[in-house]
């Protein structure tokens, strides 16, 4: 069965490309998802994309992914800094995940430096712009496979 990766984008990432372009760039989420699908086809894996502005919807999606996907790539948006519920959902389903941020959250407001997910993530990508998604998918294709070990070493 083809390796399957779930790509989750949280609140306001539907505005990517038009939202604060000096911080997030001009590529839209639609472009990101299209590129992710092309990349996935090249890597012979499947990528399912999901975006929601609602914390509970993201928790539901993570719960539904149990036993269905090999790994999760998540840009939790502002929920990064607030959501115990998303942390608990990711830990509850036991699916390895990569946390990604388009911007360098460490070079911005102090409160953006704290993440409820980073200490449990397999990897954290930030500040690469939307290229971070490409990097995350390549990493996931190589290292996030159920039954093939998840070690990146
Ligand atoms: O919505 C976002 C986007 C973000 O996750 C990023 O991709 O850089 C960074 C978060 O601090 C912010 O709330």
What does this structure look like?
With 153 residues, the chain is of the alpha/beta class. The chain has a single domain, classed as Rossmann fold. The chain has helices at 21-24, 29-43, 55-64, 84-93, 131-143; strands at residues 4-9, 46-51, 71-75, 97-101, 123-126. A five-stranded parallel beta sheet has the order 2-1-3-4-5, with helices on both faces. Strand 3 (71-75), helix 4 and strand 4 form a beta-alpha-beta unit. It is globular. Mean pLDDT is 94; it is low at 149-153. 1,3,4-trihydroxy-5-OXO-cyclohexanecarboxylic acid is lined by residues 12, 75, 77-78, 80, 101-103, 105, 112.
Q: What is the fold's blueprint, element by element?
A:
Elements: E1 4-9, H1 21-24, H2 29-43, E2 46-51, H3 55-64, E3 71-75, H4 84-93, E4 97-101, E5 123-126, H5 131-143
Parallel strand pairs: 1-2, 1-3, 3-4, 4-5
Bound molecules: 1,3,4-trihydroxy-5-OXO-cyclohexanecarboxylic acid.
Residues 12, 75, 77-78, 80, 101-103, 105, 112 line the site of 1,3,4-trihydroxy-5-OXO-cyclohexanecarboxylic acid.
- Tally of contiguous helical segments: 5
Query: What fraction of the residues are assigned to beta strands by DSSP?
Result: 15-25%
Oligomer: single chain
Rg for CA atoms: 14 Å
Protein name: Catabolic 3-dehydroquinase
EC number: 4.2.1.10
Active site: 24 (proton acceptor), 101 (proton donor)
GO biological process, one term: quinate catabolic process
């Amino acid at each position: 069965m083809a390796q399957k990766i779930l790509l989750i984008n949280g609140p306001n990432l539907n505005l990517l490309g038009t939202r604060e372009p000096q911080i997030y760039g001009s590529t839209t989420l639609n472009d990101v998802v299209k590129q992710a699908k092309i990349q996935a086809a090249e890597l012979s894996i499947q990528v399912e994309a999901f975006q929601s502005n609602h914390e509970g919807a993201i928790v539901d999606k993570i719960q539904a992914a149990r036993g269905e996907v090999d790994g999760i790539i998540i840009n939790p948006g502002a929920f990064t800094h607030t959501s115990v519920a998303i942390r608990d959902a990711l830990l509850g389903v036991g699916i390895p995940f990569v946390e990604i941020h388009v911007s360098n959250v460490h070079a911005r407001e102090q409160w953006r430096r704290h993440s409820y997910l980073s200490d449990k993530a397999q990897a954290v990508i930030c500040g690469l712009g939307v290229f971070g998604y490409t990097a995350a998918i390549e990493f996931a294709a190589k290292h996030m496979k159920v039954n093939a070990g998840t070690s990146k070493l």
